Amino acid sequence: MLRKLFTPVLALLAGSAMAQSDDSLMIRNIADEILVNGKAYENLRVLCKTVGGRVAGSPQMLKAESWGVKALQAAGADKVWLQECMVPHWVRGAKEEAYYLIDGKKIALNVLALGNSMGSGPKGVSAPIILINSFEELEKRKDEIKGKIVFYNYKFNSKFVKTFQSYGDASRYRGTGASRAAKYGALAVLVRSMSHSTDNHPHTGAMNYDTTYSKIPAAAVGLEDADKLAAALAANKKVSGFLKTNAQMLPDEKGHNVIGELIGTEHPEQIITIGGHLDSWDPAEGAHDDGAGCVHSIEVLRVLKAIGYKPKNTIRIVLFANEENGLRGGTAYAKEAKEKGEKHIFALESDAGGFTPRGFGFSLANPSQLQKVQTWADLFKPYGVFELTNGGGGADIGPLKGALGTPLAGFVPDSQRYFDIHHAKSDVFENVNKRELELGAVNMAALIYLIDKYGL
Ligand SMILES: [Zn+2]
User: How many Cβ atoms are within 10 Å of 168's Cβ, its own excluded?
Assistant: First the structure.
């Protein structure tokens, strides 16, 4: 009786062990190809060093698009095309100028205008600076704001081990701080950079105006300068400041998502999307954010082609336009998918840097899909992925879930160094490690292989 009961169970276990060993061989094959013949690092070098920073609407954005087309063709895509979308066109203009004055002595501040912000005008803003540590404090002291430069000194919370939590917490000040201060009559805002780096580079990033209030200039301050300025203000010194920014928002420009695919052999109509965003901020080269995600995605296509894997479903790589200050690329992609009645079975994004892999975060249709994914856990462990957890995705693929209910995942690399360089001068190719970058692509390709083969 016992034997009868257990035989089918044992057979099932043996079958699944066999599938696991086939799969582990296939993933070993994927890893060998990437770690020996990988193109991700060289692709990233070309993007960073021949194109550099590539804000939506800029001439560099167009150069980046042609880089993407060439890289996808060289990777072996069956088909490569551009999907048009209109993108905002924000320009920084001439270098910003900022300082504060104590007892007539000028002390320079290292600042960068925030993305989407308006310039101060040619005369700049000269006004007393008021230190505001939180939005709660802003509300309490709303009567003191008029005619001043508000300096938000909200700190990146060091207690969060996963630094994206600190970022989510602090980035409200960058996003909405200007309008909240303008509501009470502020003339400009300075925002402590969203980082816990140990240098003084300011970190830019998108802000948005509430059009009810005046569009005042806004700039990020490097951490060393932010600490000095905060100390001076906390000592109750009368501190006046000067900020001149030269940014403006021009009319929308034509931009593109760059798309390449391997056509599925059994279900060509079922699409698996893998992507990162092609645009980046201008102070650096957008190496980790998000050049890494673009070359990771291209490498997934390249490796599957190189090892002769014939996907059942269509594997589509998308280098999204305009994640940073508008999300127009991801929005256009989902809109067209819906209009054409496309069937999107899964989407994966890499937009957290090219660091050592840790895991994937999933936003799936039901708990049984996550349980299925978790049965693959042992296959990832040799390559450094230990966490297959609930919750995750990416900004660019988010609209697909909204429009079509597509299950999503986000690649999760180690996050300790990401916000040191994020949106700052230091996000350059030299700060990307070749092996770490390649291991990201290995794990992404392994996940795509398993989902293509078994579905969710
Ligand atoms: Zn990004």
Answer: 13
